[in-house]
Design goal:
With about 270 residues, the protein is α+β, with helices and mostly antiparallel strands. Helix content is about 35%, strand content about 20%.
């Protein structure tokens, strides 16, 4: 498995910040209020080849976010990521973030930059989705693609960050696979999802997978609505043991055509 060596530095700092400002969560605080509240200048404007930027001066810090980002939930996560750099990485005077540094699952790129991008993401995750509030919100709910969207809207954060939060907290028995340029770059399986994954790292996803359908469709949306979750065989992604019968699983993909990436989520039907 492509595990990046991680720590809890980002999450712990976010918990500390929330305690200092006296909020259980920051969902109802606007982007500008959130940034200004920490004495930081906030600027929303078009940025070239960047989603966010932090500029640390001698007396003031500026956080910029690309106003051309289509989804407000992604803008919110970018801002929280930059706040992570502000609280965690005081040696960063000028730092630019894009789809690669902001991607939870881009392990190769994170490894090149050390832990700072993981820590900033981890900070953003806990700041926007505090674990206690998050667990309470999903309590007694079943996993589905619509739940990911529901959580995203509730906490005003990106779909990707929601998926990572779910798998990191091991809330549901899931397999999450990240695919970039048609190649599996990373996967992570919940402890409660039993079975051995096929050899897929640095290979194309299985031919029978939904992920492969999206690649063949040039990352366009193949399925919509209730059809987003498609039934597949367990053997599509998992090895079958001796005398083990195949069983029904579900696969749901989140494609991003602009970056040629797919997040595939697999679970038992």
């Amino acid at each position: 498995m492509n595990y990046l060596k991680t720590n809890n530095k980002g999450k712990n700092k976010a918990i500390e910040v929330l305690e200092e400002i006296g909020f259980d969560e920051v969902t109802k605080i606007s982007n500008s209020e959130l940034v200004h509240g920490f004495g930081i200048i906030f600027i929303s404007e078009p940025l070239d080849n960047a989603d966010g930027k932090i500029i640390r001066g001698k007396t003031k810090t500026i956080i910029k976010v690309n106003s051309l980002i289509s989804y407000p939930e992604r803008i919110r996560f970018v801002i929280a990521h930059e706040l992570g750099h502000y609280f965690l990485h005081d040696r960063l005077e000028i730092h630019t973030d894009n789809s690669k540094t902001l991607n939870w699952f881009n392990i190769e790129n994170q490894a090149k930059r050390g832990l700072q991008e993981y820590e900033a993401n981890d900070f953003a995750s806990e700041l926007l989705m505090p674990e206690i509030v998050f667990r309470k919100f999903i309590e007694h709910k079943s996993f589905s693609p619509s739940l990911i969207k529901e959580i995203s809207m509730r906490f005003q954060t990106s779909l990707t960050s929601v998926v990572y939060k779910l798998i990191a907290l091991d809330v549901f028995p899931l397999l999450v696979v990240f695919i970039s340029d048609g190649i599996v770059r990373y996967w992570r399986k919940s402890y409660d999802l039993k079975g051995w994954l096929k050899d897929v790292t640095k290979l194309s996803p299985p031919e029978e997978s939904v992920a492969k359908e999206y690649i063949d469709a040039n990352y366009d949306f193949v399925y919509k609505g209730e059809d987003k979750a498609q039934e597949i065989d367990r053997s599509t992604w998992f090895k079958l043991g001796e005398n083990q019968e195949d069983s029904d699983f579900m696969e749901y993909c989140i494609p991003t055509k602009q970056y040629k990436t797919i997040i595939s989520i697999i679970w038992e039907a």
